[in-house]
Amino acid sequence: MRIYLYFSLLLFVNCQSQIADNNALPQGKEIQYEDQYHYPFTLSPKDFVIINSQEKMNEIFKIIHQKNKGNRLSPIPTVVENETYILIKPQLKNSNDVSLDKISLIKNTLYIKVKEFNNPDFRKASRFSPNVLLKLSGNISFKKIIIQY
Question: According to the UniProt entry, where is the signal peptide (predicted)?
Answer without folding.
Answer: 1-20
